[in-house]
Amino acid sequence: MTAARPAEIRVSELFGPTIQGEGVLIGLPTVFVRTGGCDYRCSWCDSLHAVDSRYREEWRAMSTEDVWREVTRLSGGTPLMISLSGGNPAIQPLGELIGRGHEEGYGFALETQGSVARDWFADLDVLVLSPKPPSSGMETDWDAFDACLRASGDKPLVVMKVVVFDEADYAYARAAAARYPQLPLYLQPGNHTPPPPEDSDAPIDIDGVMERMRWLVARVTEDRWFEARVLPQLHVLLWGNKRGV
Amino acid sequence: MTAARPAEIRVSELFGPTIQGEGVLIGLPTVFVRTGGCDYRCSWCDSLHAVDSRYREEWRAMSTEDVWREVTRLSGGTPLMISLSGGNPAIQPLGELIGRGHEEGYGFALETQGSVARDWFADLDVLVLSPKPPSSGMETDWDAFDACLRASGDKPLVVMKVVVFDEADYAYARAAAARYPQLPLYLQPGNHTPPPPEDSDAPIDIDGVMERMRWLVARVTEDRWFEARVLPQLHVLLWGNKRGV
């Protein structure tokens, strides 16, 4: 009789180190483990290649040790922050990886919409909950979101990040912030020109992103919403839609 | 006999709220009090209008109450973060202003090269020490820098920020980080096209800034310097050299 094979992690991309381009850890050198598969289908998803099962042939089923070997190679064995993103990384078995990395002094930040709670959220260093506003076409299940918060306990730094394309999204962000006043809040202007999944280096409307960023800054300051932090996707400004940087 | 007039603050600009464009508070809505006068003359200074005494006619001598009235007007009386910058704000009498703002729930972040220590540094919420690298043409007095650290005590969040134009600056930043391993470190690519003081909206070499940013990210990750955070001047990307935004 053979032992059960440990659960495998579906990985769409594994790259870095490069700087984190978004949110609370912006600018920090990071290795990215982008998992494949998502329970959402946001209209403006900028990582469809890691979401749509049409691209699952590009995903690799990796054991924790496979992933760990690759992270170690990329980082040269020097501890750094590892971003677990997706897709929705919460649907992957990542608890063992987090334990493995912590043994060696690495940190873990997970980014998820907050639709699936996992007990290993409590082992993270940073949990970024990114509920999706109306423009995504998705509906937020706040009970599931609350379950994610409960699962994280008091251990990781928990922050909220909301992508904003328009006034309806902005109103959603304000309501979300009012619901969770304890969570530091990051607003991020949306990118109307996400990369088509077949093209890993498609052109991007930088001027549009910057215009939306200026609008968002004006909106926040007019409303005297002084706790919100407004940040663009820095990697998009630096490298456009190019993957792996 | 009349009481001595309280010390006045020399103010070059007072504007906002807009987002903080740099460093640890990047993205946070902020009112900026830019003081006039500096004990340094960095070759690439991007705020010469607040440094060079040729522009002192534009500076206003304001009492704490004058400044406070203006901050209150700009913020609509809603507490937010106030950035004390310059020039070198450490040469201004700002202790009373900090006390006044704290009474009303405002926060204070001060940005200085670390050449002049003041006992009121301990009353700040955030102290950004920004020693100037070789390209500035200035020489760092580390004893004065140490005095700033001592003055701040354990109260404010103290971080270090170093502008980097070239390899010599980068080596300086590494040495500074090794000297103060306890300080979170922010690296910022330099702007080779600072605004001439006579022109508040001069063109800027954004491509050059972005190129230097990409170089800096590569440099940091090649060296596995994973604690350093690399951030551009976001306001420059959004608004160029324009003042008051």
TrEMBL record, chains A, B:
Taxonomic lineage: Bacteria, Pseudomonadati, Pseudomonadota, Alphaproteobacteria, Hyphomicrobiales
A single MF term (Gene Ontology): lyase activity
InterPro entries cross-referenced by the UniProt entry: 7-CO-7-deazaguanine_synth-like (IPR024924), Aldolase_TIM (IPR013785), Deazaguanine_synth (IPR017742), rSAM (IPR007197), rSAM_sf (IPR058240)
Entry binding sites for Mg(2+): S47
Annotated source species: Sinorhizobium kostiense
Keyword Metal-binding: yes
Cofactor dependence: [4Fe-4S] cluster; S-adenosyl-L-methionine; Mg(2+)
Function: Catalyzes the complex heterocyclic radical-mediated conversion of 6-carboxy-5,6,7,8-tetrahydropterin (CPH4) to 7-carboxy-7-deazaguanine (CDG), a step common to the biosynthetic pathways of all 7-deazapurine-containing compounds.
Gene: queE
Catalysed reaction equations from the record: 6-carboxy-5,6,7,8-tetrahydropterin + H(+) = 7-carboxy-7-carbaguanine + NH4(+)
Family of the protein in this entry: Belongs to the radical SAM superfamily. 7-carboxy-7-deazaguanine synthase family.
Residues that coordinate or bind S-adenosyl-L-methionine: W44, C45, D46, G87, S130, P131, K132
Source taxon at top rank: Bacteria
Protein name listed in UniProt: 7-carboxy-7-deazaguanine synthase
Residues that, per the record, bind substrate: I19, Q20, G21, R34, S85
Cofactor binding: number and manner: Binds 1 [4Fe-4S] cluster. The cluster is coordinated with 3 cysteines and an exchangeable S-adenosyl-L-methionine.
Pathways per UniProt: Purine metabolism; 7-cyano-7-deazaguanine biosynthesis
Subunit architecture: Homodimer.
Residues involved in [4Fe-4S] cluster binding: C38, C42, C45
Radical SAM core domain: residues covered: 25-241
Enzyme Commission code(s) on record: 4.3.99.3
Keywords for the protein's UniProt record, in alphabetical order: 4Fe-4S, Iron, Iron-sulfur, Lyase, Magnesium, Metal-binding, Queuosine biosynthesis, S-adenosyl-L-methionine
